[in-house]
Write a structure and sequence with these properties.
single chain, about 210 residues, alpha+beta, Immunoglobulin-like, 2 domains, six-stranded antiparallel sheet, four-stranded antiparallel sheet, 3 helices, 12 strands, about 40% strand, elongated, disordered N terminus
Amino acid sequence: MLGISGSLMAQIEKPVTWSTIISKKEVKAGEIVELIFTAQIKSGWYLYSSDFDPNLGPNVTEIEIEKDPSFEVVGKLISVDSKKKYDSLWGGEYRYFKGTGVFKQKIKILKDNPVIKVSLNAQACTDVSGKCVPVSAEFTFDEIKVTAGTVKETPAPANPKTPTPNKPTGALDKNSSVAELELQKSKLITRTPDGKDESIEVLKTFARKWGN
């Protein structure tokens, strides 16, 4: 029995070990922190990252975070500087880590005493035999202290209307309507007491006087 048990234990592969840190342990309500997961990967093995098509075939690294009113998840899990490779077997490009892999997840802290419970699932493979094994881990982040005050969010600026350039009084453009043209014309014309266009009358007088 001992021999069988020892043989089974020898077959259990643990090519990845994990460590975690929080980007900031003291925050105000409304502030965002990053949960940072670091994978130490055994020599001869590689770990699939989170940033390629999950329908390709290999199991991407994923996390599931237990919901709680004290925080909210912001965005997706980010793989930091993963490598890429084309695999003819899968017929596509995947991304992976060797040696060390780093993942980050943003969390917005809403209330005091947040407790963030994370489940991680991934897949690691070896170049030596082509063997792949599932990778899983559980993490709890309960060291975040919420200090007094809240983070004020800057409201997004409203879409300002494009200012209309100042136009000289009486100036016209190609979009002016007929009514606008008539209005501008009336402003430029000086009339005599009997309603005649004074500028035309002046021209007529000039022509009679100097025409010969």
